[in-house]
Amino acid sequence: MPTVGIFGGSFNPIHFGHLLLADELCEALRLDRVLFVPAAVPPHKPAAELASAEHRYRMTVLAVREHPRFAVSYTVDTLVALKDEGALHLLIGSDTFLDLLSWREPRRVGRLARLVVVPRTGGDFDPEAPAAQKVLHELGLPPFGDVAGPVLYHAASLPISGSDLRRRAREGRSLAYRMPESVAAYIREHRLYHAS
């Protein structure tokens, strides 16, 4: 049975940090494929800083097209749609993990996929902290470290941030070596992240 990683995010814009993380998790977890799912309307992101869902989807398609195990999906209920395709792993950052209770049907998410939580480099995520324990309890999941519980994975990280990339695009500065050139060209062509 194949194993599928679902990597959700705003991808505003997608960059080499996202791609490196997905590639590392693909290898470490022996995933057969990783499905990138750009959030149509990320609930915790300021709308003024977001490129449209269509632009973020297209940039993600450009970014992943050269990796044989990466694909992109528009599907809102991706986990439900994929539940019969194999073992599912939901790849999320530690900040997203702490926000899971605000998602639609969070308990169902926890039942449909094994959570793989990646702490932000330099962050202070503590899986034993009350906030993390509350999420586990509300989702009905065993603790980190339990054979059936979520996986805590410390991954390689690049010092690239979406907010820095948006600022650089707004100021007309270089995006080279931070994202695939096809994505940088798309941002320039569509004048994304410039003041209205």
Structural domains: how many: 1
Helical coverage, percent range: 25-40%
Measured distance between first and last alpha carbons: 48 Å
* CATH topology type: Rossmann fold
Characterization of the model:
This protein has 8 helices and 6 strands; from the N terminus they run βαβαβαβααβαβαα. It has 196 residues and is of the alpha/beta class. The protein has a single domain (3-158), classed as 3-Layer(aba) Sandwich (Rossmann fold). Helix 2 packs antiparallel against helix 8. The termini are far apart.
Q: What's the layout of helices and strands?
A:
Elements: E1 3-9, H1 16-28, E2 33-38, H2 53-64, E3 70-72, H3 78-82, E4 87-93, H4 94-98, H5 106-112, E5 114-118, H6 130-139, E6 151-152, H7 162-170, H8 181-190
Parallel strand pairs: 1-2, 1-4, 2-3, 4-5, 5-6
Helix pairs in contact: 2-8
Notable characteristics:
single chain, 196 residues, Rossmann fold, 6-stranded parallel beta sheet
Short description:
By secondary structure, this protein is of the alpha/beta class. α2 (53-64) packs antiparallel against α8 (181-190).
